[in-house]
Every structure is written in structure tokens, then in C-alpha cells.
UniProtKB/TrEMBL annotation, chain A:
Belongs to the CAF1 family. Pfam families: CAF1. Its cofactor is a divalent metal cation. It comes from Canna indica (Indian-shot). This is Uncharacterized protein. One of its GO terms (molecular function) is RNA binding.
Automatic annotation (TrEMBL), chain B:
Pfam families: CAF1 (PF04857). This is Poly(A)-specific ribonuclease PARN. Its cofactor is a divalent metal cation. InterPro entries: CAF1_poly(A)_ribonucleases (IPR051181), Nucleotide-bd_a/b_plait_sf (IPR012677), RNase_CAF1 (IPR006941), RNaseH-like_sf (IPR012337), RNaseH_sf (IPR036397).
Amino acid sequence: MAASGAKQRLTGAVKQVTKSNFAAALQQFKAHIDTADFVAVSCRKTGDCSTSSLRHPWRRILPIDTPEIAYLKAKLAAESYDILQFAICPFRLHGSKVLAFPYNFHLFPRDELNLCMPSYSFSCQTSFLTSMAQEGFDFNACIKNGISYISRVQESMVKGRNPYPKIQPVHSCSSLSVVDSVFTSRIKSRVEHWWKACKDSNSKDDGALVKSLRKLILGAILFIEDRFRFRFISLLLISSTVLPKDNMESVQSTPNYPAELWAPYLKKFKTISHISDDLVPLVVPDKSGDPMAIYVVLTSSEEDKKLFMSEIQNIEDEQNLKVRGFREVIDVISSSNKPIIGYNCLHDFTFIHSKLIAPLPSTLGEFMCSLRLAFTNIVDVNHLSKEISALRKAKNLIAALSYLKRQFFVPIDIELPAEDEDYNNKAHGHNVLRITHLFATLCALLKLFPDGQIPLGQNIKAIEDYSNIFYPICVNLQESDDEELDYTMDVKKVSTDNLMFLWGFGHLTFKELKHSLQQVHDVFMNDFELQFMDKTCAAVVFSRSESADILLEEIRSGKFYSDSLLKKIPGLKAAGYEAYTKVCKLGLWEADLADSLENVTSKSNDVLLEPSAKDAYEVYWRNELAIDMNDY
Amino acid sequence: MTNLTLVWARSQALTLRLLPSLPRFRHFSAAADSDGGGVAVKKVTRSNFEAALEDLRTRVRESDFVAVDIEMTGVTSAPWRDSFEFDRSDVRYLKLKDSAEKFAVVQFGVCPFRWEASQSSFVAHPHNFYVFPRKELPVHGPSSEFLCQTTSIDFLAKYQFDFNACIHEGISYLSREQEAEAFKFLSSEYLDGLANSFCNLEEHVDIPLVRTSDLLFSERMKIRFQEWRTAILRSSSKCCTYEGGADDNDTQFQTVFFKMRPAIKLNGFSSNQLKLIQLVLRKHFKDLVYIRVADENFSWQRRVVYVDSEEDKALLKKEVQEDLIRNADEKVRSAVGFRHVVDLLASEGKLIVGHNCLLDLAHIYCKFFGPLPSSMDKFVSALHEKFPHIIDTKHLLNSSQAIQYLMKNNSKSLSSAFYRLCHNVSSVSQNFTSNTYLRFEVQADESGSSCFKSGASHEAGYDAFMTGCVFAQACSHMGIKFDMHTASCDLIRNEKIKKYINILYPSWNSRTVIHLDTGIENPDSSYRHKYPVIIFSNIVLIWGFPSKFKPKDLKELICKVFGRDSVISVFYIDRTSALIQFSKKELVNDFLVSKDSLERNNDPVSVLHPLTKLLEGGNTCAADYDTYRDICATSASKILFAEQADSLGISWKTKVGTGSQDIQDASCNEKTTADNSLIKHASGMNKVLKSQSKHQPSCGDILDSLYVSKSLLGKAMRST
């Protein structure tokens, strides 16, 4: 099958996973991950920092941004927006043959635990929702049946807060106060009494009454009605909560102790296992994780005990899955150590990190370290595609793919699993197949695997050079609309030292500003370029390196704001790149850039105007930037 | 339009006949929820908006009052933005403003009620508008972004809110300001392009043709246009139309007619190529004009038009110009969308009825009129100008004795009030013959039309209907006679309800009401004083303290220092921030000063000071009540109050009042620059700690999570 053939079949080939088929899909997914060579990922979010926001155009990732600033902007987006679809495609690669198993998980950050998690609120960009709507996305299904999740850090914070019984590890407790030992022995005798009574009644009738009682109690607490088979013989509930009167058997011996009294006694439940081996203590925590009640379960035999223990374990696992939700999928990928293939990775992985691993750290370095702990090997196809120089201009996946199709003959045969009833016709999550396709094509073009075989092992030599380098897609400020096809996109590197920001020029247009600047100061007599960051602020790049220094020096001494300038452009202000960095670091995103710069510069003049030669950075005046994770 | 059937809301048989095909698509969990099963609510989306609007115009004009209700994507943008009893009225307004500015309106219920004397019943027309802030024009839209509160979205989903209808088919809107801006933008955009095409040759500087490909292209175009022109001229002299040659450029050069003139439709050229074409035309062809026209989908169409003469050229310019202006006008009018409904409500000056509607009104003002003013009194007076008569049924229920008696201490929620007061509408099974119950009819004038859905609570249209019913019923209980003989009832001027009109109450815990006509907020006797009076100047705000402190501990700690009776109350904003009310105003300053001096001195004695415990972690900040207001005024929405305080860029840790000890370091935003030696005073150490540990979960949490990943890794290694 040729590439085009594969494409036609894409419709319906992506398995759509929601809450209802999640558990089953997860098992299948694990198997596919195990056999895969690579895992492609792609997410659909409710918003992004790359799209044009009319109000704050400077919040997008721009070519003039240093990697640090690009990260801060991506972080802002990841913290405000949410993921609605997460497409993952484990695939195998044999030369031009790709065996792919695409999944598309529908997510919704539902607060399953009532703990304001995973997110209290999230932003939506109308344009994102509208374009999803045009693709026929079912928002009702997403909100109702989307899988929820919590991050690793969130999970460790709520650990033990879910009100389901657990098998408490029994600790021996050496020092008992008098009160404690009196209480313990009283409990012990009661449990013994109950245990004997059970044993006796057991021989007579394992009556329906006992069974139904058991069902009642456990059913009420576990919220698992039919699936849980009640194999064990008897159960004693020692609880501070008052149960219905008719649960005679279990409540008779319940001392009415307030909940907080239970904590010190928990450790002493060794006593119970001392009574008999067929008793299993179970602890039910309340919402804050403190124990609320203790069950004592009587099992009929050693096998029954084992069975019971494993059932409890299953419930716990099930609960954990419910709590972690989609996070389980990320854990599977993370632990598989398979190379992850993404497109525009900085965007996607800031989202993944903040939603599913931990809150985003404040610097790029920390982020990269933390990310590498979770995913050892990430390949940004966008970076890989830079190897083919013509692809540098491709602004998105589709453009890159169609370019390759036109220029090269690289037949890629994508083999997909057969459709079944779970697959519907909705064309969701196809981006991940495009990423797979692009990656396979690039591998073939760059002859990364000349013999067509992917070597086994964690580190695949061929892609090592390309992994963990992110190329954030950035937009050029000067491109006004899509309709204006850019034809002058040349690479131009500039040093941040030569970049300055101007604001306070009122409503001057581009031409007017450029014209009046030339009259304002000598430095503008030489060659310089201008870009608007938003309607209040412009970036200037000087071709001569000393121009910016002269200007900064004059601003510092106050000479800049003297007579001549104020006549031409009253209110004009300027600052170096440092001020911009500071605005981003402080997160003053809410305002126009001019206001934020004003805020930063007016507060501490000296620091900001120092020409900071030490951390001068090469940025692009209008091209892409790369972030190398290996640097960190 | 024919009024085919009048449906008695209480008569189920009729109702069912009207809505035969509607499945019962709602289920109700709570018994208090009234099932509006039989009430037909008109669903309005983009597709039927124009017609529904025209229909609504007459309905509103004829109505006696209009009930409104809205559903939005959330209420509080952060947990600490909830309404608290410790909120001063300015803080309360800031919270209201934040909510209205951040969240979107997704459903707007409008229900005009008219007293029909001949039927001796009220006739209601519930409308349920789906609203979505879609960007319809390439200018500042309603909002490019809005916030969703997860629990609110979940809540809407639980009550069967149709998100698909909202996002796919919701009606967009522009505020008045945006409308003017959009029109200005569109017309200037249009006319600029036009001026470009008709300008004279001399005025334009040629773009130098550097690239060979450009030169070749220009030359090719020149020849192409020449051919076309001669063909046109030749054919026109022969009085027959030009037959385009069937060459490969055919799809790019489509010969069409434009305003009765022969023209070429240019397709598939790059912007650079189009620029070159313009140059060529300007340079070589005086009688060919390049123009841009906008089509229905807002994309530009490029045409090259042949003109006979200079006069013809001027004529063409005028025609195109008129077209463009008309087009822009139409576009903007349709983009104004839902605001037409709000304008209608405002211009008709009818009595507007809402239930607990202050937030709704703030949304309406913010979305459809303009940015919310900076203070409550300004907002209230601006609102009063737009809507001169507003009545809040919640206030009515709370303050009218007669209704208090009927409600018998039941919850004042809308559905419960509806259930209590309007048995006859809410429950169809019982037969009420009593005259005290008013009758309501819901009119569905396009029977069988699919846009009528059976209403249900928490759907804006049905909630508006319930609000109106509750209001009318309450009026009747208060002794207003609706009878056969009054053609229309002038509720606005009715003495009995006059005292409830234009009075809103800001929050359940404010104990005050706001008079919309005067902008004055004052205490109201109908709201009982549950809490002791709060003296705001006695309050200290602290944040960033360790979350292990319980309110009890905090109080104990402070009482140890300032005396047993020093603290009146401690209120927790969230787990790391609190407001403490002292018994005396001096204590506020005492507290701040002693906290500050504790931070400055690192001597061993200060370690024994009880407050030191509170300062553990080095992030504890303290300030007065005004700082609380300032933090509430910031626009970010961090989950924790302490994080939000940071976004204000506060660098001091203790805001000591205007005393001699003015350490209030005005230079904000310093916490990240370590190299400013001036700021590096005693708390320098803490600052380092602060920048490391702030907002981040505790070290333990991170270690835990890393451990998880490690153990997973280990597992995988073992299994392979």
C-alpha cells in the first residue's frame, strides 16, 4: 500500500478512548507499547501560545525570544489551557513499512476526588474550540465521558485520601500506655468473642442473612455492588460512624470512639492477627486520609484469605486507576523508555509536564531535567526535519508532508489495525499519524536505519543526535495574515545586545515611527530594523553593535530623554533586552508590553540598563530557535 | 404567524399533544428540582436567530415584564475568590468584576410575560439563546479567550447542557464599542485596498525586480494581459463575448463579468505574484484596474477589470466603494448578533426580572455594553441608565413578609421557590382550583417545529420562565390584583412592589442592599445579622504561612503575644492565608511591627518568640486589609492566595503602617534579582529560600513523584 492509500484509510483507524472503554483499551495499549519501536504523541488543547491573540500578540513565542523566554511563554500557556485530546501512536518501523496502533484519548479535567484537582479552572481560546467544532468534535461526549487524570505530584499529595479500605501493614508497638493496653485488651476480647460466635454459627448456617448483611456493609462502603464477590465468611466493623440498627452482628461490639482516637490504636492491630490467622484487619480512611473505621474480616481458610487479600488489592488497583486516570497511560510510556516522537515538543511537553507530572519549574534548565527523568528520549520531528533545508520553511505538519510528497518519492506503507466497533468515523487524533508518517519519511530520507532494522535497546544510536532538542514553532510578527505568503523569510541572527525595545510613541504607524526615529537620534541614522511587538511597543535591532550601547548609556545618564527627542516623539521610552527578559520572568503577561516594560524599568533603573554582556544570547530576528535538552 | 395552540401549563394532555416527539431527555436527581417537562422553551441558535429576534421584538413590546437568566462557564476563578463574610463591599465588587470579566455566557434565557385579561392568565414565551463568543470578524471579537471552571462545566453537563449546540451553533456578539471598532476597521481595510488600486501611476514607487523569476513572471503577465485586452477589444467590436482560450492558465485566469464589465478573476497566485501583477498593470495598462472584493466568507477575491475610459474608471470606483461599505455594514450588523436582544431589552424599558441577578447583570453589562467600571457605585449607575427597572425575586422573597410566611423558611433557591409558590405550574398532577394561584400559559407558535424543547431547570430559558412565574405569583400574594378587566398591569408604577424595584442585594453575607437608582449601599433590616459587625481597620492579612496551622493554633499563637482577648476572629482564606480581626486597631500595627522586627533580628532570643513559629518557611507575609483588596484587584487567577499575592510583585514581607518605621519597600518585583544590594536586607536569606520553594509543592512531594517514576523505571527494567 502506498502512502496515499494509507492516508485514505486513516479515517476511522484511530481508536477513540473514553471513560467507558478506558480500562480495556489500556491493557491493549500496554501490549502495543511493549512491542513498539517508537511512540508518537500529539495533544489537542483548549488554547496555545502560538496562535495569534489580538490582545497580547507578544505573548506568542517569537523568533527574538531566547530559549528561556520561549519556555516561560510555553509555561504560561500550559498553566492556563487544558488538554482535551491526547493522541498516542506506538509504532514499529521496518524500512518503509510502518506498523502503527493509533489511540486517541479524550480527556476532561473532571474533579473526581472533589479536591480541586486536576485543575480548578482552565482557559479556552474561542478559535481553538471553533476549529475543533468544525472537525465535528463532540464536546458533550468529551465533558461527560472524558477521562480525568491527576499529576504525579497531585497524587502524592492526596495519597491515602480515597475512602476505600486498605490492608494496613501491621506494626508492632512496643510501649503501651495503661489506657492503651486496657483498650487493646477490651477490643481483643470483643473480637475474640465475635470470632468464636462466628465460628459457631458458621457450622450451623452460613445463612442468607449474614450474606446480605455483609453485602450491605461492604456495598455501602466500597460502592462496588455486583462485581465484588463476597467470598469471605464474616466481617466485623469497628467504627465511629453509626451504622443502621439492623446490622446487629457487626455493630454490637462497636465502641463509640471519636474518629481521631483511632489513629493511635491502629498500630496495635497486631493483637487481632494474634487472635487467629484467619482474621484480616482492614482500615477505611476518611477524606483527609485519617482512619475512620476498621474492619475485621474473618476468612474461612488460607486460600480464602489469599483470595480476599488479592481482591482487596484489585480494588485498590482499580481505585488507583480511577484516581490516576489517563496518567496511567503516561506512566506506561514513561516506564517503557521508548523514544517519543513529537512535533512542536516544547508546547506539548510543557503541557504534559504540568498536567501529568508536576507543576512547571521556573526555569528551562529545571524543566528539562525534570522532563528527562520522566521521558529519557524525546525526538522533535520539527528538529529532525530541519536536516532537509527546504523543510525549514514548512510551518506545520501538513505543509511539511505535502512538500516531501512533491519533492521526493518516499513510499511509506502505514499498516493500521482493522477497524472494529470501537472505531468511529470521526477524524480525531490524526495528527499523531501524520507525525508518524513524517518521522518514517524522514528516517528513510536521512537513511537513519540503513538496514531497515531498528536496533534493540534504550538508546538508538541513529536518533541520539536528534533527541531532546526542541524546536518551538514561532511566529514572525511581521506576517500579518495567512493570506500573505511569506517569501522573504531569511535567517538572520542577532545578538540580544543589539536588540532594544521602544514604547510610548503613541499611535504612530510603522512607517511614521521609522521615519521619526531617524530624526530623533544619530544611532538611528545607521541601518536598523523595526518590528511591532504589539500596538504599544516595537523591537529594534541595530546592525552596528555599538548603537545599542550608546543608546543604553544615554538612557542611563538621562541624556536620551532630553530636548531633541521629546520634541519629535514625546513620551518615547526605550530599554534593553534585559527588561524584556524581566517582564517574562516576573510573568507580567496581563498588560500591553509597553505597560509591563514601564512597570519593570521604572522600578529599578540601574539593574536593567546595564549592558549585560555576560548573558548575551544569539536570537533570530525572523527565524526559528532551538532548545537543546542535552545542554541541561 | 398563527397561534395554533395555547398550552395550559397545568394541562398535561394538551402539552403532550404539542410536544409529542420529545423524549424525556432529562432526569432529575433532587426532588426539589421542578420538572418543567411540559413547558415548551424555544431554542435559539445561529440558524434561527434572525427570525426569533423579530418575533421577540413584538413579544417584548407587548409584555408586562421580561424575566431573564443566564448560564455561564464558571463563577469563581480561584477558590479564594469565593464570597466571604470578611469581604468589604469594594472587595465584593472586585470579585464580582473578576467573575464577569473572565467567564463566558453560554446560555441566555429571555421570557416575556404578558397579562392576557381575556384568558385571565399570564402568557409567557420562554426563549433559550445559545451564546458563544465566536470570532466572526477579523477584528477584536467578543473575547478571544475565556475561563471555564471545571466544576461549573461538570454541573452544566449534569443538567444536560448541550455544549455542541453552544460551540457549533451559538450566537456570537459584539459590544457597542467593538461594533464601532469593527466597522471602522472593515471599511478602512476595504477602502485602503481600493485606493491602492485606483491610485495614479506616479505616486507609486516601483518595487525593484531583483529576482530573475520575478522578472520573467512580470513579463509573462504583461503578455498575458495584453492578449486578453486585445481579445476583449476585438470581441466587443464584433459585439460578441470573449471566449477564453483553453490554455493551462485557465484556472488562474477566469474571465468573468464584474459590474457589467469584462474582468479576470485571479486565482491561486501568491501574494508576491499578486504584487507583481499590480505593478505590471499600473505600469503598462491604463484601462485595466486591479481590485479586491470580499466575498461572503470574508476571503478576498482579486479581479482585473477592463474600463473604457477615465470616467468609467471613476464610476467603477464609486460602485465598488458603495458595495464594500454596504458589505461591511452587513457583516458588522450580523456580528453584533446577540447584542440585538440585549439592546431590545434596554430600549423597551420594561421591568426586568431576575433571580439573584447581580452577577447576571454584571455579565450583561460587561459583555454587551462595555468594560465594567472600577467601583460598584459607578457600575450601578451605569447599569441603571441601561435598565431603569430591575427587580430581583430573591430580594423580594427575602424581604416581603407575606411571602416569607408562605415560604416557611424553605430555601430561597429558584426551584424551591417555584415549587412552593407555583404548585399549579410545577406539578401537573394536582388540581388547584384556588384563586390564589395564577395561571400561566406557554405559547408555542410554531407547533411541531423542532426548535421547541421541553424545559428543565438550570437551563437559562426555563429558569427565566420560573423566575417570571415566581415574580407574578409573589405579586399576587402581595395583593396585586390581576383580573379580567385590566388590559395591562402597570407593574413598574404599582405602589405595592415599588419598594422592591431597583434593589439588589450583593451577597448572602453582606447584609446590605444596593439601590440601583442612587448607587447607595446600606444595611437592610430584612437580612438578619448573623455575625458580629466586622471592623475592617482591625484586620490583618497574613499569607504564606505553613499550611499545618489550623485556625485554632493561629489564634492561640497570637493570643500568647498580644493577650487573651486580642483576637476576635480568625478567618481562613485558604490553607496558607488568613484574615485576623483584632479587638483594637492599635494591635494591627503592633502585630506588623513585631513580625517585622522578628524577621530583622536573628538573635537567639527571638527564636523563643511565639510568632517565630508562624514565620517558619520564611514566606509568611503580613499586611493590612487594603492589601487584601489590592490583591483581589489583580487580574491573574492563581489557585492559592499566596501565589496570587506574588503576581502583584510585592517584595516586602511586612507592610508596616505609615509609622516612622517605613520599610515598605516600594520597589516591587525585586524578588528575582539577587544582585540588588539595596534590597538585600535582613530577609535576604529568606528570599533565596522563597524563590526556591514558593509555589512549588514541597520537596517531599517532588521527591515522591520522582520516586514513582524511578520505581516504574525499575519495574520496566526488571520485566524486560
